[in-house]
Amino acid sequence: MRVGEVNQQNYKSYLSLLGIKDSGMLDALWKKDETQGGKAGFDPKTGVLPGYEGMYVEAGDTSWHKIVPVSDEVRNKIIAEVRENYLGQRNGQLGGTDAECQEYTDNHMALVRAKPPSERLSYSWTLSQIRAQERTRLTNYIRRYNAGWEPGQPFDKSILTNSDFGVSDFGARAFDISI
Fold first, then answer.
1. Alpha carbon 53 to chain centroid, angstroms
2. How far is Cα 104 from Cα 112, in angstroms, rounded to an integer?
3. How far apart are CA 168 and CA 173, in angstroms?
4. Residue 10: helix, strand or coil by DSSP?
5. How many Å apart are CA 77 and CA 69, to the nearest integer?
6. 65: Cβ–Cβ under 8 A, 6 or more apart, which residues?
7. CA nearest 68: which of 109, 134, 103, 112?
């Protein structure tokens, strides 16, 4: 085994050093890749998986932290996901079950992978900013009616539903990208 060599055993050893006992996801990835005729699926120079091209970031590089154009359809989809999180059982709290987190990641990456590799980091950043701004807006709106509320705590959902999620009452528009 060579230091820096990308192979399944190296990653399993690394995972065990971190205290991770279940390498099931890594095994599934390796098996999936072997059925597609590849060795490990990683680019040996960057360690990037197929579909994640353009997502490699050097330490300290923030040049991709910029807002880029997003279609109204995608913007509205992101905002709807955030609103659903507030109206659902999670009450605006991030996280969830492994399956919920994986679904969130899969949805996010499907949108990002639709872009050329050179645009993916900034596009991903923009999607994250849309989510963050809508979360902040909704949290602040709920706190106007329930001052001590924190995400994850139950609240009267009609605060959002009766005011079109604070847009009609507040006169505010959900995340507006200005480039």
1. 16
2. 12
3. 9
4. helix
5. 15
6. 122, 125
7. 112
Tokens of 107: 């949805």
Instruction: For residue 89, give the amino acid letter.
Output: Q
- pTM: predicted TM-score of the whole model, two decimal places: 0.67
48 vs 84: CA distance, rounded Å: 32
Tell me the pLDDT tens digit for each residue of 86-129: 998 888 887 777 777 788 888 888 899 899 989 999 999 999 99
CA separation for the pair 70, 33 (Å, rounded): 32
Q: Which tens digits make up the pLDDT trace of 126-142?
A: 999 999 999 999 999 99
The span from the CA of 65 to the CA of 63, in Å, is 5
Ramachandran class of 146: left when φ > 0, alpha when ψ lies in -120 to 50, beta otherwise: beta
Three-state secondary-structure class, residue 135? helix
Residue 83 tokens read as 């609103």
Q: Which long-range contacts (CB under 8 A, 24 or more apart) does 153-160 make?
A: 153/91, 154/91, 155/91, 157/86, 157/87, 160/83, 160/86, 160/87
